[in-house]
Prior knowledge:
This protein is of the alpha+beta class. It has helices spanning 5-15, 72-88; strands at 22-24, 36-43, 46-48, 57-68, 92-101, 109-120.
Amino acid sequence: MIDVSNRVLTNIKTYVAETCKNVSNYSSKSPPAFPAVSVVQIDNPDACMDLENNENAVTSVIEIQCYSNKSNTESRNIVNQCCDAMRMMGYRRSYGPKPVTNASDTNIYRTVARFTRLVSTVDEIEKFETKEA
């Protein structure tokens, strides 16, 4: 099984490090700290099996949720940074970014976006370099 979720999570952490320190693969209505980013691979179905030279491929579907306790603007700015990082990894945005209303706590601003990309056994997502201070 091809699973790039850890690489995507690590790259997002690296890319938004200056804006958001709380990046993980949890999925909830309220994160433990703000601002926060949730990076979850929500699907990973086979796309092509048994191609030439035993190559296989999957469609990686990543959902990113950005949380803020300050404003929709902060949440949207962070998700836009994540969109830039996902494009750099070859992903195409398929949904969002859209704000999500938290009915139980209207002081939490959440924005969600989904991305897809075909990933094969011979295709590696490059690791982002850590930005020097």
